[in-house]
């Protein structure tokens, strides 16, 4: 328990430090713009590049793992979508954001810092693979459902083009692709450039967690949806259970990969859920409340999961004899 506290306290402590600063300082939200730009376009891409480029190329094509984790995220998304539509009595556009609240974990800001701290460098490849394919799934499903649920005629060509642009121009995905190329050719950048990339990589997790706390603090809870408990149960409890069962059914994976996938699935809803809600002007306040409540509750659920993993109480394969 002491080791889990040592791991979880700094991790969540950075989030609550940011939250406290956001509540106490009362600085405008616009002040986060450049720091968000640094995290999304500079620091985290350097982290993903370093993780992938340092990995043997053959490990980057573990398709059974990719299929299993992506299908699990898709299943959580569909369960949250269906339950949200039934409980919230809303339309398909609201349902798309509800599905994202239940299926889209904070794999960008929180994922790498937690999995690498808890499981070591062996978690780097599964962390990056989950991020790339989960984001590709959400950047595809949400715009498609928004177009399908809109009042106008569905323009399939424009929607497909929009999805492809969002997926392939995302800075994290670009960094991952460059990292894959570097791993294939075993490329090593000059020492000075490599040192700079390392500095930027090391800044990713603390900056991202601090900004997450500030961002949540500046979005007060005004309206909690009645379906929120269901959606957050799907996200924080059911999603990691689905991943655990799916990977156990598919085959024999390295335990570090399995635990990485379970930890990534156990994370609270991503901040991108709020961004998408704002973009389409639907479910905005309730999405903000869901992210805030989910982040707070995840302190207990993720810490509990870390206890199970580090104590050996959680087998890597649910169906192993």
How much beta, percentage-wise?
under 5%
Distance between the termini: 27 Å
How many DSSP helices? Answer: 13
- Characterize the largest beta sheet: strand count, sense, and whether it forms a barrel: none
Which runs of at least 5 residues are low in confidence (pLDDT < 50)? none
Classify the oligomer.
single chain
Order of helices and strands: HHHHHHHHHHHHH
Pairing-aware structural class of the strands and helices? mainly alpha
Q: Bin the helical content.
A: over 70%
* Outline: globular
What does this structure look like?
The chain is mainly α and 321 residues long. It is built from 13 helices and no strands. The longest helix has 27 residues, at 191-217. The protein is globular and about 50 Å long. The two termini are 27 Å apart.
């Amino acid at each position: 328990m002491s080791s889990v506290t040592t791991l979880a306290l700094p991790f969540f402590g950075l989030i609550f430090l940011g939250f406290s600063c956001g509540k106490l300082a009362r600085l405008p939200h616009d002040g986060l713009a450049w720091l968000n730009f640094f995290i999304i376009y500079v620091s985290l891409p350097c982290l993903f590049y370093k993780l992938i480029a340092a990995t043997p190329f053959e490990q980057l094509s573990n398709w059974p793992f990719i299929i299993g984790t992506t299908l699990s995220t898709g299943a959580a998304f569909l369960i949250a979508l269906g339950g949200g539509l039934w409980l919230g009595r809303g339309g398909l556009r609201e349902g798309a954001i509800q599905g994202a609240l239940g299926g889209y974990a904070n794999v960008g800001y929180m994922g790498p810092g937690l999995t690498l701290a808890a499981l070591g460098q062996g978690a780097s490849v599964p962390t990056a693979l989950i991020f790339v394919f989960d984001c590709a799934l959400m950047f595809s499903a949400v715009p498609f459902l928004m177009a399908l649920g809109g009042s106008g005629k569905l323009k399939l060509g424009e929607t497909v083009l929009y999805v492809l642009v969002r997926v392939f121009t995302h800075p994290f995905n670009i960094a991952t692709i460059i990292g894959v190329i570097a791993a294939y050719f075993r490329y090593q950048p000059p020492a000075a450039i490599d040192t700079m990339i390392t500095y930027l990589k090391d800044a990713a997790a603390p900056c991202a967690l601090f900004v997450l706390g500030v961002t949540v603090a500046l979005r007060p809870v005004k309206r909690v949806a009645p379906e929120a408990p269901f959606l957050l149960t799907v996200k924080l409890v059911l999603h990691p259970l689905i991943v655990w069962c799916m990977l156990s059914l598919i085959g024999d994976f390295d335990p570090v990969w399995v635990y990485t996938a379970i930890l990534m699935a156990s994370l609270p809803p991503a901040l991108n859920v709020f961004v998408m809600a704002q973009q389409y002007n639907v479910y905005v306040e309730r999405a903000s409340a869901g992210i805030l409540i989910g982040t707070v509750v995840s302190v207990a659920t993720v810490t509990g999961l870390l206890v199970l993993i580090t104590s050996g109480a959680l087998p890597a394969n649910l169906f192993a004899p």
